[in-house]
Amino acid sequence: MGIVEGCQEYRKAREAASFLIMLKNHETIISAKNKSHLA
Could you name the domain of life of the organism this protein comes from (predicted)? Predict the structure, then answer.
């Protein structure tokens, strides 16, 4: 595997990780809103 391929894989992994973090934060915000509605 060359340097260019490695950079592309690294970028893909970072994008996937940041996307997952964004989703997780979104879920946390939604559940917090739901809890405040129930309270």
Answer: Bacteria
Rg over alpha carbons for the chain, rounded to the nearest Å, is: 17
CA torsion angle 11 13 18 21 (round to 10) = -170
What is the rounded distance in angstroms from the CA atom of residue 31 to the CA atom of residue 28? Answer: 5
Predicted confidence band of residue 39 (pLDDT cuts 50, 70, 90): low
Retrieve residue 22's tokens. 């964004």
Residue positions counted in the chain: 39
| pLDDT at residue 24 greater than cutoff 70 | yes
Return the structure tokens found at 3.
């340097």
